[in-house]
Structure formats: structure tokens, C-alpha cells
Hints:
The protein is of the alpha/beta class and 461 residues long.
Amino acid sequence: MRNKMNEILIHSKRCFINHQFIEATIHILNRKIFKIYVGEKKMDGISFSDYGNLIVMPGIIDAHVHINEPGREDWEGFDTATKAAAIGGVTTLIEMPLNASPVTTNVDAFILKQNASRDKLHVNCGFYGGIIPTNTDDIEELIKSGVFGIKGFLTHSGIDEFPNVSQENLEKIAPILKKYDIPLLLHCELTDVEVPEVKNQKNYQEYLHSRPQHWETNAIELALNVQEKHDIKVHIVHLSASEGIERINKRKSLTDKLTVETCPHYLYFNAEEIPDASPIYKCAPPIREQKNNDLLWESLLNDGFNFLSSDHSPAPPKRKQLESGDFFKAWGGIAGLQFTLPILWTEGKKRGLELEKLIPLLTENPAKFLGLENQKGKLQEGFDADITIWNDSQEFEIVEDSIYHKHKATPYLNEVVVGKVIHTFVNGVQVVENSELKNLRKGELLLKTNCLSHESGNPKR
């Protein structure tokens, strides 16, 4: 017998199905999309919700998030991060191997992280493992344990226990990555001394010039060399340097194993508008000039990015140096997990971005990158019922009381944006109703090994 508690009908005149908006009714049964009917469809005994002209789309998949638990849960933590995700329409996220303590560089640390997440997941959550100079022998076991990729830094990460790696380190693990078809994710900055002397640590322009574009492009060259030499999947995270676009595109024309992302803060803010003594804007690589960001937008509008992610990387106010205003001592990271959709839509509308292009960059494309394309990222029969419902014309101000991150400090505070998430469904359960949390702990811990066993819409969990 069917359990009517797990069976609902969702109707909207604007369901995003097969890359277009149609009027449809989505029949959810036992956590899955059981059936999709064109038009309005009501059935006796099944709860029916009519969302009118609200957009009904696949749940957002954020493939780049720092939650920092265990060990630094005072920076964020699974409970607050996944609540913020749900409010923002994010139904699945993948957590980075830092800045937890211990960092996720071996199986024991990976198990600790999984245990730390239990009973705290309000959306689905998977994990990456990390590569550091001393753990190349641990990578295969990490992959076997279920990480979705291996992340490395080519410059200092900001966390001493997660030091940067060399090309030699990457080439040592390349055969393992190729064997399991697992992506290598790289923070592309290569430090050198070709930077001006710092005179005012509170001046944003000095911080910007301390991490020049050639740091990124030199690192990108290294990444492309490793990708080409070993024919492995390489992913360039949070691209901020427009000077890297052409060489990335050239290599992408020759292989389908190179991918790249950028983030909302590089597309929404620009260096000219960042005031001094405001390290709330500090991230690495830095937010660059308007001209640079215009080129990032041009690339996005011409399909240059595989997907978009938040790179949510929060820290306590003291660590963020909010009182001192010192850009060089402050933690480098933007807190923005909850606001990816409205930030991108607000700025994108001004630049001619269409929803038909934006939505796959947040759903279908990251699902494909993660190997979840037969399970998540689309409104399709047999897929997980992860669904985001939002009003693409509703304007609102980001105020402190609305922020679910552990710390309310974010550069998006007081911004007036367009695109309000109204309802969020995770695994067929409504976790957000009328922009407020309704049901908690409905997310699942995702392991890549389990997702690889996915057959006919039924993952072996």
C-alpha cells in the first residue's frame, strides 16, 4: 500500500522541465518524482499544492562549501550551514576537506566528519577529500570511502595543516584519480614575489594587488599541464582572473575532462566599490575590477563556466578582523551559502541572463560533475524529489534576522535583491514553507561509492 503521507502533487504554470518552462503537475511518491503530468492534475486522496506562477525547478546543488565541522564548528557547522542552504533553495551540497579539524586527508578524518554530520543534515551533503604533500598514499582509500573528488591548493590554504601541493605531488596521485575517474579540484594561485610592497593593510587595492592575476594564470597553466599529461579530470575552482579564460577554453575544446566554476561574489561585487577597512569582502583569489568581472560575465553568458557555486567560507567576526579592518590578517572567505540564487539572478537580469541558462548552472551541471546526473539536478521521473520553488520577481532586502548562517556577517547584508525562495523540498519532504523552516533533519549523507551503485532511480544507501 502507498503511504499517503509520502505522496503529494505539486502544480505550477512554470515548471522547469527539459530546459523549458511548462505548466505541469509533479507527483511525488516515497521521496522520488513518480510521475510528471503536463498541465494540472488532481487525484483523489493525494494532497495537491498549486504554486501558481512560482518557478518550480530542481533543487540547487552547491558543489563548493566550507562547513568547518568537526573542530571549527564555531566558524559554522552542519546544523546552521544546512539550515541556511535549505532557506536558500540548496538541496544538496558538497563540503570541502578544510577548514575542519582534522582536515579530511585520510579515512579516519573522513569518518570523524561523517559522524559529526549525523542528525544535523537538513539538506543532502557529500564530501571531498584533500591532497597535501604527505598523504599521497591515503588518496585511494579516501576515494574508496566515498569522497566526490580530491581538492588541493597550489598556494597556502590559510590552514597550516592543509599545506599546498606541488606538480610532483599531483602527478603522483594522477594514476589513482584516472583509475577511479575522480576529479582533481585545484585552488589555482601560485605565489611569487612579483607583488608591490604593502604600505596600508586596510587598503583593499593593496590587498588586490598582492594577489595578481598572473598568480592564477600561472597556476592554471600547471593545472592544464597535469590534466593533459595524465588525461585526468581537473576542475578549477572559483576562477576570478579573466586572463585565464582563453587558455581554459582552448584546452576545453580538446578535452571533456576540464571544468571550471566561478562564484556569485566575483560576479556581483567589484574592487572599485569595496571600501577600505572592510575585510568582510576578503576572499582568495580576490574580487577584482569591474572590467575583469565584465569578462567573467561575458564568459558565463557564452557557456564558459561548467557550473556556479558559493564557495561559502565563513569565520567568526574576530577571525574576519571586522574591528581592525586589516585585510592581510583577516580570514579570506565569503559567507553566502544562503544567497546564491538571488545574487546571481539580481545581477544576471541586468546583463541579459535568462533563467533557462542560469538554472542548469546551479542544478543539472553540478549534478553531472559529481556523477549524480541519474539521480539529481532535473525534474524527471525516477529522480530524487529535491525541488526549489521561488518567486523570480519578488524583491527583498537581506537583513540580519533573515540570515541562517552561524555568523551574520556577510558582504550581502543590506543588499536589495530579486528572487525569493518560498518553498524547498528535500527527498520529497517540504523542509521550507513560506520561506521558513518546517521540517528538520531530512537531508541524507551522500557517499560517491553509493551513488555509483545507483540503478533505475534507486540508489543503494
